[in-house]
Amino acid sequence: MSERPKAAGPFEALRGWLAARRGAAHAPGWGLTVAVLLALIALPAAAVLVIAATPENNDWPHLARSVLPEALKQTLLLGLGASLLTLATGTATAWLVTMYRFPGRVMLDRLLVLPLAIPTYIAAYCYSEFLDYAGPVQTTLRELFGWTSVNDYWFPSVRSLGGAVFVMSAVLYPYVYLAARASFVQQSVCALEVARTLGRTPMGTFWAVALPLSRPALAAGVALVVMETLNDLGAVQHLGVETLTASIYATWLQRSNLGGAAQIATVILGLIVLLFAAERFARGGAKVHHTTGRYRAIPFQDIEGWRGYAAAGLCALPFVAGFVLPFLLLARFAVSHVSVAIEGGFLSAAWNSIFLASVTAAAATALALVFTYAPRVARSGLTRFGQRAAGFGYALPGTVLAIGVLVPLAAFDNFVDGWARSLLGLSTGLILSGSIAALVYAYVIRFLAVALGGIEAGLERISHNLDAAARALGETAVSALWRVHLPMLVPSLGVAALLVFVDALKELPATLLLRPFNFETLATHVYAFAALEQIESGALGALTIVLAGLVPLILLHRAIAGGRAGGSGET
What we know:
Helix content is 75%, strand content 1%. By secondary structure, it is mainly alpha-helical. It has 2 domains: 16-48 and 346-519, MetI-like fold; 55-290 and 297-330, MetI-like fold (Orthogonal Bundle).
């Protein structure tokens, strides 16, 4: 029977702490690992810039004359329209749910986040089916009023820029809602009450105090909305909006012009840089914090009578538009076309999606753990920069990322093939290009940021004293991670992996451009049927993606709105 290890005394603890400090200052292995991983993450963006700067033909004059003006205009208008509509919808509903009590408030607070489970391209397919000439809305109108053709009446076209703004706003407003909700919940009640005592009305208090205090959070939410509009491909293609992302796809695949596609991609990279700058400017460098450790429960104001039901109806409208209508349409089609979907490859697409998403979730979670743990055991400018920069890939649209991934991998394949031919007389063909490895590589770069936040927060809750105690007992940085930190990080790792899994499950642009031949995921399965105007045959796949996205949304909402620091009042 082995002896129980003795508890470390004060001198041993001090020795362990000093060892931990020395290890933190002199751990070149962790810094080297972070540097290599950062190089792999930055490789696609660098490749796009190199390809754009050294194309086979100089396509800039043609692009600047015939492609970029309209594509840039459509992209900017789409981003601006979606930003304004999601800002108004998300902020208004978050303020009502946070500060007022009315019928159905608690339930609506949970329901308002559900539209985020529906990808933009699925929402576009549903609304075009719902609002087109042969759809149920226009058909009902013709039956009610006796109209016989489109010449007898006017109806707004969903396949337009305005339709794209509406569709994207309907499913993306939860980004702003969640950010605003979290900000309103944590605001000082005292500041709001002071404004009321100085004669401000409830709306005046909102405009003068609550809204300015929430500016950083709202800017972050709107930035996420704009990034999603830049990344979208399926929705804009289906609705006939020629954005920069759609232009990249058409230039690369339909015109076989990779250099021109890379040059358009550089314009998107420029827009992303401007977006980050605008988001920082909107924040204004503001940092809002409490000056006291005492918190008070939010004093809800009751809205009674018809006004209460009107408030409930106002909050229910975004949920109905963003989730109920698309979900009901998908459920109806899925139930009536189960056999068609299964015969059309649903099962193989589902298995491919689950496999890809699982591998991506595992890889992204592992890399996120490295990036967050490295600054803890190797305090240097490199490791701290790596932790901040590792999530940059989330800002890269899938089409841009696909170009940046495919070209370096193709160059590697050609190098290996040439080496094998010269030395062995054998051709290795394509090893990484057009393979599952290329897809996973792109997925991990894009969704690494999703895993970073949760793991970083979980690691910050673990005291550094445990590191010192582990080092005093003879543990290395790696063994301490394995034996001490990992068991305590299991919940954070699980949530991070789940979020990455769901995002990878519904990724479309990168999958379309990088997937192997005859390899379908649920996203491309739905896309293929929608391109043939047969969304009912792909409804089962679309419904599966939506249902998979509900679980992390519920967890995310519980984390944001589950409580107010220092208090136990209802939020």
